[in-house]
Amino acid sequence: PVLGTVFTSLSEILAYMRSVSQKWFCLHTTTTPIKDLSGNDIPADNYVFIKNANNQTFYITQESAEGGIKYKAVTTDSGEYGFQRQREAIWSNVITIAQKSDGEDQFNRIVAASKSGSGNNQDKILVVDQQASEGNNTLVIGGASSVFRSATVIDFATNQDANATGGEKRWRIDSSGNLRPYTDNTYSIGYASWRPAQVYSATGSISTSDRTRKQDETILSDAEKRVARKLLGYICRFRFRDAVSSKGKAARWHVGVIAQDVQKVFSEEGLDAFDYGILCRDEYPAEYEVVYGTRMELGPDGLLAMEEYDTGERKLVREAGEIMSVRNDELHYFMLASLAS
Hints:
The protein has about 350 residues and is of the alpha+beta class. Helix content is about 15%, strand content about 35%. The longest helix is centred in the C-terminal third of the chain and has 13 residues, at about 330-340.
């Protein structure tokens, strides 16, 4: 406005506002580039609003159809600008994302800027892709879209202290699709009281057997071999109680041993079965779940809406107890040793 030249950057605009103590400045970007305070071109069709607080501090809002960015820029003695840039926070109990009208297939997405920015879709990372069609509601995490970039790794983290910051990464899906623990030989799949029903695998599991990882190698004692021979007589067929409860007569028969029998046979030879990796006993605590209620609350729009809340009550889901189990692969080797002698 003073020199008749076109602004090419926000830095020039802020310098002008300081020189004339202008309090407000608005602009709408077109295809003509104008650079932000990082030196990157602001995409076309963005609305930029600048508020001059005290000729030293400026609040900048940049909005587009895809969202907004806020800056707080502070001038230094050299005339440069130190700034923090952040997206506007969204505060809501429920966030609904919809890109199409009701009745149509939905492709509702949460995307994030990559290191190269967010100027176009090819620069963005697809975080969550929720696809809803006539027969399926699909949730895709991490990408797999021809429009956006994808995650190269996905980490899962938890913290045992609900009131602490930090936490630990527990599991990772790497760029080749392999699921692995974040720390070697640390985490289990399932608990004694929360077991997966079945594991399907094209090949068997692989257990570490490298001599460099073992010590104290010895052959079985005479007492151990007697236990192994006795256990051959305890092999039986049985059915699981939960299977009979749900399937009745259709529940299938299984062949194996009973953990308590294994413990008894070891004891008869003066041995403690729990000194061996063959037998396991796991205790588990009582588990409770939150009891929620519903109530009508006045929303920010002045209308009553149904709200779910924590009643403070807890319902017992599972009583404390213990469960015994057997590592079948070790038991089989143990029994084979008796046959070889």
